[in-house]
Specification:
294 residues; mainly alpha; MetI-like fold; 0% strand
Length: 294
């Protein structure tokens, strides 16, 4: 390698480092400002000195008030009631679909794979009104309902079904691409040894897909947890809405107190941050799978 090539490579690395540092700063700065604002008094500090000034004193009063007024614990329980079952069903159904479409050759495997993938291209707001009317007229037994409305509309089950229907296509697409990298000889060898299709799926394919599951679980948990649209329009009672509704409650009653809203935002963001930190290693390995394959 010539001297010019070495110098060019070094300049490229320096330029890339500067660019990535700038992008990271632009990304982190709003979060840092929100975090700092959440510990400041609004009327006696931020309102007088501006949001970009250094705080004179720090306080936890914003967190206490946001927790109480926003009823964050109740809304957090509602969100977990929706997110966890939806996440389990999404990963289960999508892994089954990906397994059927990639490990076996049948007439409509490509068609169904394309069909489930194409479903993600439709904006969810487009079909909101038909789904709203369908759920409104669909009887639902009180024994299986969390709100005893008599209909599917207004129950958390309706939100779970919506999430499963929309997110299964994306996860099927990701898992099918990953399962294609697993040698089919493993399944053929297991079949020779007498393993059933279910055993091949459960004991061979699923353990090998653990990195992809970790990456998808992190992404899907974040998307489901942060959903505001479906939880807000399908759940009629305010006490039954997910945690993102806490922000709208505070924004309505304390529209001018941005520090209080920032404190609520920080508390709401903690679970997704904890999930990412817990699955960070698997998440990164899942995203980089196949990066070095030609």
């Amino acid at each position: 390698m010539t001297t010019n090539s070495v110098g060019l490579t070094r300049r490229n690395k320096i330029t890339l480092t500067i660019l990535l540092t700038f992008i990271a700063a632009v990304w982190v700065l709003p979060m840092a400002m929100a975090l700092l604002s959440s510990f400041r008094y609004f009327e006696s500090d931020t309102l007088l000195n501006g949001p970009f000034s250094w705080p004179k004193t720090l306080t936890l009063d914003n967190y206490r008030e946001a927790w109480r007024v926003g009823d964050i614990w109740t809304h957090f329980g509602n969100t977990m009631f929706i997110t966890i079952p939806a996440l389990v069903l999404i990963l289960l159904f999508s892994s089954m679909l990906a397994f059927a479409c990639t490990r076996f050759s049948w007439k409509f495997n490509v068609f169904f794979l394309v069909l489930f993938t194409a479903g993600n291209l439709m904006p969810q707001q487009v079909i909101f009104q038909p789904l709203f009317q369908i759920f409104k007229k669909t009887p639902w037994p009180d024994l299986l309902s969390d709100t005893n409305t008599g209909y599917l509309l207004g129950t958390k089950v309706a939100v779970i079904l919506i999430h499963v229907a929309f997110q299964t296509g994306f996860c099927t697409f990701v898992l099918s691409n990953y399962m294609k990298t697993i040698p089919k000889e493993l399944g053929e060898a297991a079949m020779v040894d007498g393993a059933s299709v279910w055993r091949q799926y459960w004991q061979i394919i699923l353990p090998l897909c653990r990195p992809a599951f970790a990456a998808l679980a992190t992404l899907e948990f974040t998307w489901l947890y942060n959903d505001f649209f479906w939880g807000n329009v399908l759940l009629q009672q305010g006490s039954e809405k997910p945690i993102t509704s806490s922000i709208s409650v505070l924004n309505g009653q304390y529209a001018s107190d941005y520090n209080l809203i920032a404190a609520a935002s920080m508390m709401i963001a903690l679970p997704t941050l904890a999930v990412y930190l817990a699955l960070q290693k698997q998440f990164i390995s899942g995203l980089t799978l196949g990066a070095n394959k030609g």
